[in-house]
Structures are given as structure tokens and as C-alpha cells.
Amino acid sequence: MTERPIVAVDPNLINDLEWRGLLANSTDLDALRAELAEGPVRFYVGFDPTAPSLHLGNLVQILTAKRLQDAGHVPYALVGGATGMIGDPKESGERTLNSLDTVKDWVRRVQSQIEPFLSFEGDNAATMVNNYDWTAPLSTIDFLRDIGKHFPVNRMLARDVVKSRLEQGISFTEFSYVLLQSMDFLELYRQHDVKLQFGGSDQWGNLTGGVELIRRATGGKAHAFSTPLVTKADGTKYGKTEGGALWLDPELMSPWAFYQFWLNVEDVKVGELLRIFTFLTREEIEELDAQTAEKPFLRAGQKALAEHVTTLVHGRGETEKIKAAAAALFGGGDLHSLSVPTLAAALGEAGAVKLEKPGSIVELLVASGLSKSNGEARRTIAEGGAYLNNERVEDPEFVPAESNLIGGSWLVLRRGKKNLAGIEIG
């Protein structure tokens, strides 16, 4: 076991986590505060590859790990090649088991999404680990004797998710998940002196299971804390949109759609989300809180939130493309200068239809849904409210030429100032 590196730590870390609303539960907060103040603590956070991408809930954990590393502590990012083969029990029912090859592919994808957020150099460099490395060689007999003997079945049955599944049924595979995750903490404690684990509050039973296993198996003391689940004002999860989960992978959720999600959060939640998902200072966030309260129509908090989180996940370049696209789509910039993927994503969100060839501007307004009928389209044109690629169209018989196609295939239609639609030709 290597010695702890000599790194200065931020004594205000716990205070900052509390202010940001990132502490839901803790095994012993005063003891954890004292240990974090003594010097660098090795900690870990786990991610199960049960999908090809991480999502909004995982981002809370990634950013919390970054906060701890920035404060001088040492991260171990665990991507569960073993636990991902099983999956943590869900209240809704049994998970579908994925093949080993699929899980291995998803492990690589998830690792690549975590890597940009942590530093893998320096005295408190991060380490990436995969629990498949120590779980796969373990025999069933050794697992039952060395791990299973420390878990009373009555306590496992008392877990909320297990109780909710008993009537409909839960497999022994999912029932045993807590043993595997707890074993991860024990392995990292023994091999790397990892003393702290954290995760979402829905993981609290698994987190405390690891702490208890370390105590029973070694007599040692470890710590755990959980972060609250991020919910909308009505208490439902932010984890889903109409198009699916809030993925971090740009191929599963476009950066444009990602940006728009943050831009459209409720006023009542924007301060909370700024604290959880950005690295803005307390003073900066409180100033945005004040602006949101005094002039909510300016959406200052939402704009800051969208810009900072999109930049964290997709990079400054992508954020600038999105802002340029938003300006251009509503008449404030050159549409032809936009990248085709960004334009296509934006128009897809706004509403787009595909046609083999362009018709007249009247036909396009109707086909796009901006006008309900030819007569309504003609009235819009006559009143000066029809735009093609940000240029007003006054002739109802006008048919776009090939030179009007942006990126070789797109037309941008607008009725008035705010009603937008896209036409993809081809």
C-alpha cells in the first residue's frame, strides 16, 4: 500500500458541499470532516455500465468527485464491469441482463466520459478501476465464505427496494447486488487505503453495506455520504425528457438539446441546479439568484446554467456553436456559417420535416406546420411575416433554389419572430 501524498487540502470542503445541497446522508459527518481536514483522503465513486452512456444523475457524482479532487483528495473512479453484468435492483422490476461483450464496450464508453473531468496526473492523480478485475477470478465458495457470511439476510430483506419487489419477485442475482458493491469498497480499502465512498441517495443501502463490511471483515473504519436525487419542482426526476434520458453522449442527446434542457429549467429550481452542476462561486450564484428573483424574464440564471454545464460536458467550442445557432435561427446571425450537425439538431428540436424537393413558400409553410392552410400561409406572406433563411419572402409563388439550401439540404422557415421550423430536402 502506497503512502498518502503530501497535498494541501481545502478545509472548507464539507461546508461547500453542504451549501451546495450535496449532502443527503452521512455515516458520521463530524468524523469525516476531521479526516478530510487532516490530509488527502482516498475516495471512490462507482458507475455501472448498464447503458452506453452516463446521464444527468451520474453527472452529479462526476462533478462531486471533481470537487473533492480540486480540494486535494484522491479519486478512484470505478466503472463496474462486474456489477454492470447484474445491475442494481430497481423498484419497477427485474433488469435485462446484457452480454459480457456489450458490458465491456459500455465500460470503455463510460470510462471515456469520466476521464475529461478528473486529473490523472500530479500528487492526487485519479485512478480508474474496474471491479471485473477482482470479481471475475473469485470462486463462488470464497465469495460466500469471505463476503456473504457478513450479511444477515434479515437486514437485506429490510432494504426498501427489496421490500418493494418481494411481492412481484426479485431474483437472487439482483438480491445479491449489495454484496458485490460492498466487496468493491472492501477491496479498495485493503489494496489502496480508500476510506470514503459516495453516491446518490438511492444507493445509501449499498454505501452503508460497504462501510459495515469493512468494519466486520477488518475492524477498520470507513466513511460514506450520499447526494440527493435531483428532482423537478413537483418532485419527479429530472432523469427523463420526451426524447429519452438526459444522456451525456452527444450521439444520444445532441449538445443543442442538452443546452436547451438547462435553458428551460423552472425559475424555482435554477439556484439549486447552479449549486449542484456548476463551479461558479457562492457570490456569483447568489447574484444570479437575486437576478432570477427580481427579473425572471431575463432568465439570467438559466443562461448561466446552460452555458456552464454544456461547456463542462461538451466543451467551450460546442457551446459557442449553440449560442451562434440560436442567434442565427432567430435573425441575429448568418445561417450559412453554422455547422450542419448543430443546425440539424436545432431544427430537429424546433420541428423539422423531410421533403424530396422544395415546393413554393406557401406549400413549405403548410408542410412544416407553421400554417394550417394555403390561405393562412398566403395571409402570413402578405402581412410580411414569412421568412426563409432569415430573409422575408413576399412572393407566395417563390420556390427555393438549390443555392438556398444550407449545408446542401436544409431550409429554415420562420413565421413571425418566434415560430420556427426546418425543412430537410433530399
TrEMBL record:
Catalytic activity field: tRNA(Tyr) + L-tyrosine + ATP = L-tyrosyl-tRNA(Tyr) + AMP + diphosphate + H(+)
Gene Ontology terms, MF aspect: tyrosine-tRNA ligase activity
Cellular localisation: Cytoplasm
Species, as recorded: Nocardioides jiangxiensis
Name assigned to this protein: Tyrosine--tRNA ligase
Positions contributing to ATP binding: K240
InterPro entries given in the database record: aa-tRNA-synth_I_CS, aa-tRNA-synth_Ic, Rossmann-like_a/b/a_fold, S4_RNA-bd_sf, SYY-like_C, Tyr-tRNA-ligase, Tyr-tRNA-ligase_bac-type, Tyr-tRNA-ligase_bac_1
Function statement: Catalyzes the attachment of tyrosine to tRNA(Tyr) in a two-step reaction: tyrosine is first activated by ATP to form Tyr-AMP and then transferred to the acceptor end of tRNA(Tyr).
Gene: tyrS
Annotated residues for binding of L-tyrosine: Y44, Y177, Q181
Keyword field: Aminoacyl-tRNA synthetase, ATP-binding, Cytoplasm, Ligase, Nucleotide-binding, Protein biosynthesis, RNA-binding
Chain span(s) of sequence motif 'KMSKS' region: 237-241
Record's subunit section: Homodimer.
Sequence motif 'HIGH' region, location on chain: 49-58
Source organism superkingdom: Bacteria
Domain Tyrosine--tRNA ligase SYY-like C-terminal intervals: 354-419
E.C. code: 6.1.1.1
Presence of the UniProt keyword Transferase in the record: no
Family affiliation: Belongs to the class-I aminoacyl-tRNA synthetase family. TyrS type 1 subfamily.
